[in-house]
Amino acid sequence: MADCIICGTSTDGGPICEVHQEDVAFEFDGDHPSQLTPGRFYRGTVDGYADFGVFINVGTVTGLLHRSKLDRRLESLEWTAGDDVFVQVNNVRDNGDIDLGWSIRQDEREFRGVLVDAPDGDYLADQADEDDGAASTEDDERAAGGSAGPGGAGEPSPSTADAGSSAGTRSSGSSAEPSESGPSAESQRTDTPEAESSAGSSSDDAAPRQPDLDSGSGRPGADEESSGAPFRGEATDESGSGRGEPSPTADLDRVAVEALSDRVGDVVRLEGEVAAARQTSGPTVFELRDETGVVDCAAFVEAGVRAYPDVEVDDVVRLDGEVRLRRDEIQVETESLVELAGDAEAAVRDRMDEALDARARPDDAVPLGDDEALAAIAEEVTDAAATIRRAVLESRPVVVRHDATTDGYAAGAAIERAVLPLVEAEHAAADAVYHYFDRRPLEDGVYDMNDATKDVTRMLGDRERHDEHATVADEVDALLTADERTATTVAADVAAAVNGDVREDLLHLPAVSYWNDVPEPYAELAREAGIEAETARELRQAVALEAFYQSYEDKRELIVDLLFDARTGLAAQVADQFRTKLSAELDTATANLEERTVDDGTVAVLDTHAYTHEYDFPPTRLLLDELHRRLDADVLIGVGTDDLQLRTDGEFDLESLVAALQLEAADAGVTDPGAREPTVEFLAGEREAVLDAAVDAVAERALAPSA
User: Fold this and answer.
1) 35-63 per-position pLDDT tens digit
2) Residues whose CB falls within 8 Å of the CB of residue 373, separated by 6 or more in sequence, listed in order
3) Which of 647, 645, 660 is nearest to 696 (CA)?
4) What class is the 372-571 domain?
5) In whole angstroms, what is the distance from residue 239 CA to residue 564 CA?
6) Model pTM?
């Protein structure tokens, strides 16, 4: 019997239980597809592409990752032949064909351990490394003059022991491997019994290895692993909590995370905030963030045991350790970790806040077009851009909620276009652009309890999956709007301030968002981008059609194809479907309009429940917009089963209308749902009473001569 490396439950001899099979990655050591285990995630290499997917070598066998299993388009994959990837084995067919599935985890660090799947059973990947290391150590000892003692154990000669002792001292400028006796040169002095014991134990492993973030291979010291003691060094108490008093002997200069690539092999000091902490089957991995970046720091007590258990996410700490280069990524081997408090904590937080503010604050926003309305809110645009940029720097997900209309999708796509490159630059994980940025359309244009519930559910799920602890702010940090301008017009300026590199990609978006009377500055910008009026119209119509179907989905790749990468061919085809469907609905609606004359004005009424296809394209909102543009009526009312929508060119006070309807139809339960267009809701049984009262009340307010 054995124990699971993750939960500790008994297994049937392997290192992982059935429950946690998908939490670890496997390296395949067999030679036949039948030896693979469906459901497991395996390390593989890209063999080549086909029209229908990607061939992946898993050990000595090859499987197919079909394009239908990808979470993105096949054409958007950036893999090349020979790249290391992780895939899930879904099925092994009788003929030996292997069906592979997508893995959002494409880095070994994202798994909770690495195992070898061998025909004779599973074992930890680091066991093979240890066996190889032990054999290598024995050979080195023999070469150095050691003799084999009883039981075949190598006894080092005095020269070997001396060499091991001298190797135990490391300067900060040396690239030598750390000794087994402790984390720093100061702590390796042998003038105390504890130090002598530690130094003596270093002969058990003459070639210490770099800690593995996933497997626990390469332990800082055999004595520390066997005893379960934490790293000895500055400010570490016996419990390994990292809350002890600082040692006056540790005299290191603080180094910024961005400078670590120039300090490989050096022992450095970092100060910052713990962004995340995860336990692997080997060391504990802390993601430490300072004012310049984020770095992984591996701390080892013993395999699978949490190091510094009192240190939690968002704590401010001081960490000493050696900078290592592991698979072309910087990591720090933690030697001591101290949680800061009081003035020391405040100093670090202030330094990080000031630096983040400076990095996040863009240059003064310059409107895309010559538009006084946007120039008037340039400062607010800069503030909004700084808020978004800071969220990216702080590894906080950016969630964009927008209307499920052309204007909403184009506005959200503008922000998305600006933020994704920043996320990619800040995070190495392949799925970072999906985790740290999310567009979530509002199906009915109103943020209601359904949407709030979805957001809370998503946040709770992210907390479980990604250890996310950021909560929604309880106040608005940046608010901006511009009169008579679409959301896209404002969002495009914000996006340009967030990321100036995408400015040229955004020029045509404002023109796409206007259904009529495009402001000349934005029509000119579109022409500069190569988008003529007809093309802009096709883009507008195509996005409107796609926004309707699966309106709760962001359709990221499709929107990119329409608005940025393929602006004419696909858009023209989809726009043709838009016109066909809208024309048929307009014919039906126009034939069934009821016109009422009130106070020398015309009020057109459409029964949207009886004379529209409520669950097909076009949606009622879009249909009423188009009818209002085509009709000569002063006011258009669309009345459904339990709601009433208004369209008028004049100024309109919805609040006073609701008050009047509540008075005239007291039993109708009239309310304002807060939609962008004037809308009221009521009880379906009082529909006729509400409609009659609404016609009179609307005429009184919308058709009355202005004072």
Assistant:
1) 999 999 999 999 999 888 999 999 999 99
2) 482, 483, 484, 485
3) 660
4) alpha beta
5) 56
6) 0.59
